[in-house]
Amino acid sequence: MHTEIKIDPKLIAYCGLYCAACGKYTSGKCPGCANNVKATWCKVRTCNMEKGYASCADCTEYPNAKDCKKFNNPISKIFALVFRSDRPASLNLIKSKGYEGYAAYMAENKLQVIKRK
Q1: How far apart are CA 68 and CA 72, in angstroms?
Q2: What are the b/e assignments for 80-104, b being 16+ CB within 10 Å?
Q3: What is the domain partition of the chain in residue ranges?
Q4: How many C-beta atoms lie closer than 10 Å to residue 108's C-beta?
């Protein structure tokens, strides 16, 4: 079964992942980052919500997300290694394309995250 990935900037996670392309989201098992009230454990999500940011791409305290200890924590490093993900590249793409452009790019390419090269 082929699921169409929708273009929706509201489905961009605070850390730069694109929830609309996630299997758990498309199967109805997760409401996406912003609506996941059970994700209180996520320091990135909490920080963005407290500061009123749509994502870490809006952060002015750490222009390079790699310098932020909440974003660049040990668990995220393990996930990046296992899934070959490059969340900082996702944030840079948001900065260059804007939220709508990023959502369109990710949906068109069926990506949940930018892959590390």
Answers
A1: 6
A2: beeeebbbbbbbbbbeeeebeebbe
A3: 9-108
A4: 10
pTM value is: 0.91
* Residue 20: other Cβ atoms inside 10 A: 24
Q: Is the pLDDT of residue 3 over 80?
A: no
Distances (CA, A) of 90 to 40, 43, 52: 22, 18, 19
Tell me the three-class secondary structure of the chain, residue by residue. CCCCCCCCHHHECCCCCEHHHCHHHHCCCCCCCCCCCCHHHCHHHHHHHHHCCCCHHHCCCCCCHHHCCCCCCHHHHHHHHHHCECHHHHHHHHHHHHHHHHHHHHHHCCCCCCECC
Mean pLDDT of 16-43: 93
Q: Cα 87 to the chain's mean position, in Å?
A: 7
